[in-house]
Batch of 2 targets.
Target 1
Amino acid sequence: MEFLINHWLDITTTLLGLAYILLEYKASIWMWAVGAVMQILGIVLYYQKGVYADCGMEFYYLAMTAYGYWRWKTLSNKEGVKEELPITHIPMPLALLWTAIFLVLWFAIWWLLTSFTDSTVPIADSFTTALSLVGIWALAHKYLEQWFVWIAVDVVTCVLYFHKDIPFKASLYGLYVVIAVFGYLRWQRMMKQTSIPKSAVLSILLCLCCTYAQAQDFDKWFQDKTLRLDYTFSGDNRNQYISLDEMKQSNGWFGRRTNLDSLLLLGGGQLCMKDSETGQVIYRHSFSTLFQEWQTTEEATRVQKSFENVFLVPFPKRPVEITITLTDTHNKVKGEMMHRVDPQDILIRPLSSDKSTKWEYLEKSGDSREKIDVVFVAEGYLKREKKVFMRDCRECIEALKAHEPFKSMSDRFNFVAVMLPSQEQGVSIPHKNIWKETLLSSSFDTFYSNRYLTTLRLKKLHDVLAGIPYEHIIILANTDNYGGGGIYNSYLMSAAHNNQNKPVVVHEFGHSFAGLADEYYYDDQYETMYPADTEPWEPNLTTLVDFKSKWADMMDEGVQVPTTPSGNNVYTEVGVYEGGGYQSKGVYRPSQECRMKVNQAPVFCPVCERAIRRMIDYQTK
Ligand SMILES: [Zn+2]
């Protein structure tokens, strides 16, 4: 008993030390809590003994513990879904800097020990102290290599204690060495298993955006080339299969060079590119697909179908892992597929850029590598109708620029026209039994909806655009039949000769460019596109689950939620109006009327306008 009383501090610190390294082995965030207790005990102990230098050191470790906890914890989201900081390799430049700091510290501490103390082992002592000082920083960043530090520290300390004839402590450090070696192996395995979060929810990704917002060096990871990934998405209302079709390459990368590893919107699906060696995310992209829309239709309950999908990504310099994820209306992962891409792969087909496709700038505000490149593609125009097509393109640009924020931010855009003739004039209108041979085989009656005009031939679409600077696609259909369609980060299509074309093209661009949702609704719509327990990812709708992440900051004080439509200032008064996203109940829109609700609206509502502005900034700043 007396032994216990005399040595309680020794015993406690030993047990805590063991708990600490075991939790570290498991990469558990609780290790920081145990660390804090150890350091506070250390502060008390050293202070009582009057060892002020050591006492000061403990303060440093305590601060690093708080920092480490914060770093590891940062990615946990508030819904309680654990998405802690992933284990990664320490980047090379940082490793060099880190080593330099260590050497300086080692020398400084050795000098202090030899000059001011009677230390018998100044070299070893200063070595372990300096290494521990920088090691805890590497641990706070969850770098795999931090284990080497502890292995070195523990080996030296073990030898030191044997040398000083303290066998109990020496064996303890021997044990630490063993745990540290296993810890290294375990972390290495964990690192390989880390992939895109299984339960991705909007807030995690938004959080990632903030954490990883630091500018990535495009040239460090990518060549000035485009990697085109062709996939087939197939299945029915319950199942989805993602298969790689073919990989292609073309010269020049015209997509965004900013915010490479972050997402502004979750979309209906995500693409994540990781450097194979370090596991670092180097590019992210989000999108929506016709396939997922089709999955919500009645047809999907009785037949399996497949859809083409094409994604353009910057061409990596080193082997990468690409993960394609499809999420459902609860923002939960429904389907996922990962594959490796080796940039040296001889089967990545080069797309020649000197083919016959004629294209020209309609408006050029700057280098296509810095601007957002929008391409107009002709569908159902005859060879002799080039002038008509060019005039139609200009009308659409005028329509876009009549709306804020496009008006004041038009210098961020380039517009390109691609006039490729179709065999026949017009497009297919199945409900009128009209079928046409056109460039993209597009048609109305998509999913049996008369006015839904789309093309399913995405590979053909991108084939004709290869080598042209383009990021966003506007397909103009040579028809006066009313309709259109727009899919986020895929394309939009509009009936160029319908008298509603101007508002429609702007509305659909809201979908395809900025990921805006439809703000209109039907009184008899029972299908729930937006479940009540999930905040939609689209910036202009809310279910009030996480309204703060939407336009709460744009509401005037005292505005009631939900807001009763006043009939005044219908385009500008920001509130929370019930009805939107095809549902009359449970979904709320930001204003009474908006370009995303009715064709008569001359403007986007303030919330949509801000969302577009953010998207423009995200792609160019
Ligand atoms: Zn709106």
Note: The CA atoms of residues 203 and 549 lie 9 Å apart.
Target 2
Amino acid sequence: MKLLLENWRKYLNEDYEPITTLRIFDFDETIAHTRSETRVTAPDGSTATLGDQKQFEEYMKAAAAKEGIETFDPVRDLQELGYNIDLSDFSIVKDPDEITVVTDILRQFPKNSKTYILTARRGNSIGPIIDYLDEIGIDTRLNDVRVMASQGESKGDVMVAMMKNKVMDDGKSNINRIEYYEDSEKNIADVLAKVCDNKNINDLKPKDFELVIYKVLKFDDGYKLEPITC
Ligand SMILES: [Mg+2]
């Protein structure tokens, strides 16, 4: 009888929460290559045009060090110090090229998985991303794809919050697999630190928990994915 009840409860849980895999995709330079630039004028009058994520991260890192800022995302602090940081290109999807090595996987929607687009973009970026996905034939509503913007904050923190979202009777998260597609070195390092090397969530992880990061690498002849595990 007890076994029957346990099986029944398991069945109920599965019925209500069959999701065991989170698929998390970055947007810029992961799903699409865009021509977005960030234009900066520093308080000393110097200007810079940052053409890609790498240039953006290097500039912000150097400026934060110069100003003694230690936050994960220094953009807001720099703005408060008088840096004029024009991020308006990121409220549109500018001249996009689809990165098919990633979107071919995005389109698969495996059973028991939930798909998120998690961009670090700030401001009103969700609408244009949903429209772009629609344009390339990915219906976010039909496939229950959630588009979220971390506004520059830690994606690792977002993932830990997702794992805590549904905790089973044994105290473990129902999520036993996270697949994460990302091009940014900084975001990958953050997720490895928060999800792999975080003692605070050891008890939350199911025994078979797996994080697989697919780093999006650009080559002359296209894009490749490099798997990274805990
Ligand atoms: Mg990116």
Note: The chain is about 35% helix and 25% strand.
